[in-house]
Amino acid sequence: MLSIKNLKANIGEKEILRGINLEVKPGEVHAIMGPNGSGKSTLASVLAGREDFEVVGGEVDFQGKDLLDFGPEERAREGVFLAFQYPVEIPGVSTINFMKTALNQVREHRGEEALSAVDFLKVMKEKMELVEISQSLLNRSLNEGFSGGEKKRNEIFQMAMLEPKLSILDETDSGLDIDALRIVANGVNKLKNKDNATIVVTHYQRLLDYIVPDYVHVLYNGRIVKSGTKELALELEEKGYDWIKAEADQQFA
Amino acid sequence: MSMTLSQKDAMNQIAEVHEQTVAKIPAVVAEKAKAAWEALAAEGLPAPKAEEYKYTPITKQIEKHFDFTAEVPAGKLTAEEVEALRFASVDADVFVVENGVFNPAISHFDAANYTACSLAEAADQHADLLAAHFAKHPHQEDPFLQLNTAMTANGVFIHVSKNKVVEKPILLLHINDTREGQVIAQPRNMVIAAQSAAVTVFERYRTIGEQKSLNNVVTEVFAEANANVNYYKIEDEGDAAYHVGNTMIVQSRDSVVSTFTMTLNGAMVRNNINFVLDGENITSNMYGLSLLKGTSHVDNHTTVDHTHPNCESNELYKGVYDEKSAGVFNGKIFVREGAQKTNAFQSNKNILLTDDASIDTKPQLEIWADDVKCSHGCTNGQLDPEQLFYLRARGIDQKTAHGMLLYAFAADVLENIHIDALREELEKIIHERAGY
Ligand SMILES: Nc1ncnc2c1ncn2[C@@H]1O[C@H](COP(=O)(O)OP(=O)(O)O)[C@@H](O)[C@H]1O
Ligand SMILES: [Mg+2]
């Protein structure tokens, strides 16, 4: 589904991604871990099409298409979804109106008819239950004045509405209390099926007790320096990142 | 102050028309007209470097394009044209000011609960009221205000007596009909809300025809004790329309006045709104929204003069400038020595959509009292790229995302409009302008 080959990206003169390789197949869950500043959010942003980063090398194939050719909206319509680490507040834009506009543009791209107001509300109700988000929250302006947990839940709600093929969750668990974490993880698990894939970027092994990954990768200094199964996450939790950093620093010195 | 040759030309023209005017108008008004002319003659119209007009060189435009002595065409507006130029969905009493003169023949109003007539009739039938209010605002120093007073033309006089609540909005629809030639219009309106009266007045400015027009309008608003006045001004004039407006507001104790100024088009527009808070426990709200494109220019100058304790003023002006349009904002807040416990807030926010668009913002706070809360802030910038990316990352195309953000930015000022049908019309205009 997703094939990243030797992806390199800069911001200004600064090299941030230095050659990322990653293969993701339908039905899989990949976890990307790594110390702060290693490039996890950058990778997520580059995949979603943020223009601040300049891709200076490599390829990204998504379902047979060159993802790097597309603007962010086309990627979203093709089925890429980024749950932001820090969802931005947009005063004056109603969450419901926004969601309806987004969903109908995505549906149009898929060759589906726009939903009527009634059908839209029906779908929305269904997905709201899935992520246990309240109507009163959705009646407000997009993310405005939402707590950290509410913002993250709103991200998963949007994911549920748009039914993406590939979801990238950027530290969706960070800063959540355990109840909110369960709700978010539960939502993600319910949306999982054999045709879609999930990349969870996280700092903490705890999330992986709730969303069980097939593969775990360690991103350090702009490269994936180690890959393994979920046991790797436990090992990292126990031993920290220093041993991996030392190995990597030696290898790329 | 020295005058250039062309300034003298304009001033000579004005002198001539002033002489003719004073001969025709009632004594109460004539006296003020003479005084205004003397003040104007001493200083002249604002020179290019005059502090108050340096970003809006309207004198130059007037000298270049207009002749005060030329006869103003009468205007041939039909009732159908009037309907097409107002918001027909807004149920209102409609007073048409055609080429600067109130024209009852194409107006329609029932004036339930209030008195309405032309200013000339008011001088005759309500001489005491007119004498007590005409040019009585303490700030008479603006040269265009003086010009209007010196050549005063016929506008609309509205009086709401004690305890009367006027439910239906009053529309003062100013239309310049330039089909027969260029128009200089200098209407003068007056709105008096007596003690505990309530009224909503909205002015709309339109142009018909392609030739140049100049509006130099003055509206005097008096909110007596405990009165409530909403005053809205919506400018959507032609590309060759020049406009200077002076809205002169005097508030007595316990009154609430809210203004909303929206500018959508015009060659060069200058709005002076001048509040004097002449009593305690007064609330003054000023809101503004400018949505400009092309080479339109708008300059909003506001003054709030706090002279008594325990009053509050709130000000929020927003602007969206596209193409080569330009904005100026100057917000003066005076808090006089005795005006303790004043709360005065001011905010000006602008979005520039192109590199050629521009904005000059200047807050000007002068505070002589020590126990006050005053704040001001301004932001000038582009649409937030983070917000744009967020919307696009959900599949929304760039143009729509742009429009959604512009709409959100602009529309929140409309919350302060209390006529639902009018607000809906303005929302439609913003949707159109935002392309969403
Ligand atoms: N907008 C930016 N401008 C400059 N440097 C940035 C920017 N965004 C990220 N970086 C830098 O890129 C590196 C990787 O950041 P990021 O991808 O956010 O890491 P992570 O998500 O793994 O914590 C860091 O050194 C960070 O300082
Ligand atoms: Mg990050």
TrEMBL record, chain A:
Domain ABC transporter intervals: 2-246
Keywords for the protein's UniProt record, in alphabetical order: ATP-binding, Nucleotide-binding
Keyword Coiled coil appears in the UniProt entry: no
CDD domains for this protein: ABC_FeS_Assembly
Pfam families, alphabetized: ABC_tran
GO molecular function: ATP binding; ATP hydrolysis activity
InterPro entries assigned: AAA+_ATPase (IPR003593), ABC_transporter-like_ATP-bd (IPR003439), FeS-cluster_ATPase_SufC (IPR010230), P-loop_NTPase (IPR027417)
Keyword ATP-binding included in the entry's annotation: yes
Any one Gene Ontology cellular component term annotated for this protein: cytoplasm
Record-stated family: Belongs to the ABC transporter superfamily. Ycf16 family.
Annotated NCBIfam families: sufC
Protein name from the UniProt record: ABC transporter ATP-binding protein
Organism, scientific name: Persicobacter diffluens
